Every structure is written in C-alpha cells, then in structure tokens.
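Prompt: May I have another protein with tokenized structure?
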Amino acid sequence: MSTTTVTATGTPVPAAEKKVPGVTRAKQMLTSRLGSLVAVLIALLWTIPTFGLLVTSFRPRAEILGSGWWNAFADGIWTLDNYELVLFGSTASGNLFPNIVNSIVITIPGALFPLIVSILAAYAFSVLEWKGRDTVFIFVFALQIVPLQMALIPLLQIFSGTWWANLIPFAPVWIAHTCFALPLATFLMHNFMSEIPRSLIEAAKVDGAGHATLFVRVILPLMVPAIASFAIFQVLWVWNDLLVGLTFTGGSQATEPITSRLSNMASANFGNNQHLLTSGAFISMILPLIVFFTLQRYFVRGMMAGSVKG
C-alpha cells in the first residue's frame, strides 16, 4: 500500500516522489507561477514568426520590400491579391491550387495505408500466438534505424518505367511513404495494443467472438487514441515532406506536391516571388493545423496512454 507525506506547504507528496527529490523539485518548478510565465513567454516567442508570416501575406509586394511586417498596422495597406495570385495565377508566379490537390491526394493514402497495415500487424504481434513472433517483431522494430535516403534509389529503380507506375502516377509516393512509416507505426500500435487487458480479450473469446469480431468490435474502439496520435504525425510528415515527393514525382507539374512547388518558387527568381512565398507558405500550413486541432483531444489521450496504471 502506497504512503504519502505532507510538505511544508501542505501538498501531499507520494512516497515514490519522496525517494527522488529531483522529481519533486522539477514538478514544483514547472507548476509554479514562474514556470507558467516562462512557458507563456516561450509560446509567444514561438508564435511571433508565424504571426509575422500571416501579416506579410496580406501586404503588397512594394510594402514587403520597403518595410517590416510590424509597419502594416501603421500604414493600413492590406490586400488579398497575394492569395489570389498564388492560388490561381500563372504557372510562373503561382497557381498552387493543383499542387494543393496533389498534396491532398498524396497525404490521405500516405497516412491511411501505413495505419491499416500497422494495426493489422500489431494485432498479429499482440494477440495472435505463433512461432517466431517476437523475433519478427524485433526485426520490424530494427527497421527504424535504416535511413530513409538509403531506400530512395532502390525504390526508384523498382518503380521507374513500370506500367502500373505510369497508370497510377501517385502509387510510388504512396508505397514509399507506407514503407518508411510502417516500422514506427507497427511499434506504436503494438505497444498500445499490448496495454489492453488480456482478460478483456479472453472474455470476448469465451463469448464466441472470432478474430474478426474481436478486432472490429473490441480492439479498434480502444485503439482510437493511438490511431489519432499516429495519424497526426503521419499527416504532418507526408504533407510537409519534400524529399520523397520530389524524388518519386520527378518534378512533374501533374503530380508535384505543394512543398516541391514552393521550393521551386524560392529557388527560382526569389526576389519577384517573395510576396507570394509568404501567402503560399501560410496556405500550406492550413491543413496540418486543421488536422491537429480536430484530433487534439485524441492526441493527448494517445500520448498519455499507458503512463498511469490503476
């Protein structure tokens, strides 16, 4: 049975923390008014560049080149022309709308495919019992140490010039993102699924539930926090990816993601595109923000899963 002691301030301290004074001091520092003030200041400093990017995206090109973004509140010159041009302008100066569509087409399957495969693999590693299960899981876990760059050329040689890659131009990008995400996704899903009480699984089996029923009606509802947590990471990763998208789309306008298009705009004639880069960069942030704030409550639950027993 656990015991607690009371500090001079009247705050009860668990016995586990009493044995580790550093933990108690760290908790007191982080929860104090000074710690909260420092956290707020760090958040403000972190947000200022993003806020400056947003303000700059609404300023005319001449104003951007002539003064800092903070002067926008004094001169009062605002415009939506940057967004109109960067979304629907000429190919040389903007026209990012097709690239946004390409990024959405790449991101959704690039997040769904590894999620589906990793959940099924986690079920096989956590619930099913078969010879060599732990050895195979260790091998899958070890694949995380393989650098992404080592697999680019072999995958490119496999996909390049094949009829199915020409038939489905986005397939190489989907498969590449799936391959690179599977080791981590399987590891996370396995760890979360292993926390599900075995008594619950055994009770479902006693009631006559087969593997399909057990997986769909018992395991999946409990896996929602973990699924949402990894979905956030994977969507952010795939949406903001430049290397994989640039390698497997070949810089083609028909399949080029928004990150590759913005990179080309920044490297080619930067001075003339400076006013468009700010609005284009902010547009590229919209979808990740929507995904994060939509799944935020599941994300917190997924991060805290397994941290508390009782």
About this structure: The longest strand covers residues 4-6. The CA atoms of residues 41 and 47 lie 10 Å apart.
